[in-house]
Amino acid sequence: MAQETQNHTLTVSGWAAHDSSGEIKPYTFKRRENGENDVTIKVLYCGICHTDLHYAKNDWGITMYPVVPGHEITGVVIKVGSNAGKFKIGDRVGVGCLAASCLECEFCANSQENYCDQIQFTYNGIFWDGSITYGGYSNVIVADYRYVVRIPENLPMDSVAPLLCAGITVFSPLKDNGMLGSPGKKMGVVGLGGLGHVAVKFGKAFGHHVTVISTSPSKETEAKGRLGADDFMVSTNSQQMQAGNRSLDFILDTVSAKHSLGPILELLKVDGTLVTVGAPDQPLELPSFPLIFGKRSVKGSMTGGIRETQEMMDLCGQHNITCDVEVITPDTINEAMDRLAKNDVRYRFVIDIAGRISNL
Questions:
Q1: pLDDT value at position 257?
Q2: Residues ≥6 apart with Cβ < 8 Å to 269
Q3: What percent of the residues of the chain are helix, what percent strand, and what percent coil, each to the nearest 5?
């Protein structure tokens, strides 16, 4: 049930799911007034993440209805709190997955707020004032300035929106595992979807040899011809996989369906690392022999902190990296959700919240 506090007097128009049918309907609600640490943002675009679908349908059993999804938000600042002087009215900004954290633990102190055990998310979270957070499927959002990033002037606001979730989710493990500033490595990307296609772009921009590993032979043309991947392997083709044994330094696994890591681990060189960022609803198969006989490592990674998200945005501005998107209108959100459930999108839906007159 929606929970608001006394200072929630700002009337906002949005779109919400009200039950586990997941149907998204227009919804008018109240947000908090702009506080001293806040910026109020006119939302221009909001990406649709698979997480939105899970929350709308209560797939994880933790949804607090009504839920206003959306954590890939771009817009323009229209109000600035007294402590939020790093921003000004008219700034192009973005809001990702994070709404609040404790600000005191070791992770917050080291700009890894995403690992704070008191983290609250942009929607379906509990904010500091006790209210339930509502996301970017709305015309206005009020955000603590410490969880807001700047959008480079040269990047379009629609195709940059998914970088605030999909982008940082793949950027963070690349940075953590030495893939920035050390070009010439052999990098594998498992899965060519919303996360995978951005990972390919990052890998090429950072000077690596990129191999896409997919179950779909039909994606080879897209991977190599459009996204610039150097090689392509069909993961169900045993000959191709065997030929690639011990050929890769690093693998980023973006697949969210249950699969075995064994054949993929065999592609790593000795001392190689595989990082998984997909979230299958069943445990992954992880045989021990490929780990033991190759001294290989398997790690996980979740989004990134705000400083790291800003670093990613700035690099995207330098390399002109954006996501491949299909822009939709709010009245077609449910159709897009249905298509997303069938993986029928290339590669990310983005809702045109403000209308095309925004021209940003």
A1: 87
A2: 186, 246, 247, 248, 249, 294
A3: 30, 30, 45
Report the relative pairing of strands 120-121 and 24-31 from DSSP bridges. Answer: unpaired
Q: What are the residue ranges in the chain where pLDDT is below 50? A: 1, 357-359
Q: What are phi and psi of 182, to 5 degrees?
A: -140, 70
Q: What is the C-alpha to C-alpha distance for residues 159 and 155, in angstroms, rounded to an integer?
A: 8
Distance CA 74, CA 41 (A): 9
DSSP states of 126-163: B-TTSPBP--SSBSEEEEEGGGEEEPPTTS-HHHHGGG
- Cα end-to-end span (Å), the chain: 35
Give the amino acid at 316. Answer: C
Q: Which two tokens stand for residue 145?
A: 């300035």
The token duo for 286 is 């992880």
pTM over 0.70: yes
What sign results for the dihedral spanned by CA atoms 161, 165, 169, 175? Answer: positive
Q: How far, in Å, are 258, 263, 273 from residue 289 at the CA level?
A: 20, 11, 15
The residues, any chain, with a CB within 8 Å of residue 46's CB and separated by 6 or more, are 70, 72, 73, 74, 135, 136, 137, 161, 350, 351, 353
The per-residue pLDDT for range 21-36, each reduced to its tens digit, is 999 999 999 999 999 9
What is the pLDDT at residue 280?
Answer: 81
Residue with tokens 């806040």: 38
Tokens of 338: 């249905």
Q: Which residue intervals of the chain are DSSP H helices?
A: 50-56, 106-109, 157-160, 166-176, 196-205, 220-221, 238-243, 262-265, 289-292, 306-319, 333-341
Tracing tokens 């209108």 back to the chain, one arrives at 329
- pLDDT recorded at residue 357: 42
Helix (H) or strand (E) holding 14: strand 10-17
Outline where 22-179 has alpha helix (H): 50-56, 106-109, 157-160, 166-176
Cis peptide before 147 (omega within 30 of 0): no
Quote the tokens at residue 80: 């600035």
| CA atoms of 38 and 192, how far apart (whole Å) | 37
Contacts for 217 with CB less than 8 Å, ≥ 6 apart: 234
